[in-house]
Amino acid sequence: MKIICVGLNYRNHAAEMGRPLPPEPMIFLKPDSALLKKNKPFFIPDFSTNMQYEAEIVLRISKLGKGIAARYAKRYYDALTVGIDFTARDLQHRFSQAGHPWELSKTFDGSAPIGSFVPADLFANHSDISFSLEVNGETRQVGNTSDLIFSFADIIEYVSRFYTLKTGDLIFTGTPSGVGPVKRGDNLVARLAGETVLDFYVR
Ligand code: MN
């Protein structure tokens, strides 16, 4: 399976990163070795001193598809959760400044914790889904899919021009503002429409 991720997909996050709004979705992939399930702890790797959380809604692909039109996109995912796109921000800046791909800073082992899935049809309007992240009981990120630059349907239409989507593939749809660093001992709790879907510790 593959994990497809969208960068800079909320205006307020692009602004906090000092980046212009992307004219088309900005896409990268994480390998399956990045996945972290069942609330297992995240171990900060020794190659970074600025590991940051990015809470994102994650879609689970439920059907094989290629060249999917936006109006049919809803047929291709069956469940949603919240995941963390862990980012070694120091490496990302270093690689970017060198003009190199920053892939390693976001795709290392354990860089994609995901929560428990909620059936997609429980959400009446996929352009109005709220989610949030708390660190040690303090709210750090609050998002709503009404603020997405590229909607779930836009993302699926775009990425399926390049990649065949397969059952079990995941799509991280982007983070709102409020990203920040983690340290050992932190407890991260993510909620989707008020329900806790992810609850784990940083070690
Ligand atoms: Mn991200």
Structural class: alpha+beta
**Unreliable stretches, pLDDT < 50, 5 or more residues?**
none
* CATH fold-level name: Fumarylacetoacetate hydrolase, domain 2
Question: Helical amount among residues, as a percent range?
Answer: 10-25%
Approximate strand percentage: 25-35%
Fold and architecture overview:
With 203 residues, the protein is α+β, with helices and mostly antiparallel strands. It has a single domain (3-201), classed as Fumarylacetoacetase-like, C-terminal domain (Fumarylacetoacetate hydrolase, domain 2), CATH 3.90.850. The chain has helices at 11-16, 89-97, 104-107, 152-162, and strands at residues 3-7, 26-30, 35-36, 51-53, 55-61, 77-84, 87-88, 112-113, 118-119, 130-135, 138-144, 170-172, 180-181, 187-192, 195-201. The strands form four sheets. The protein has a six-stranded mixed beta sheet with strand order 2-1-12-5-6-9, with helices on one face. A four-stranded antiparallel beta sheet has the order 11-10-14-15, with no helix packed on it. A hairpin with a 2-residue loop joins β10 and β11 (138-144). The radius of gyration is 16 Å and the shape is globular. The chain starts with a strand and ends with a strand.
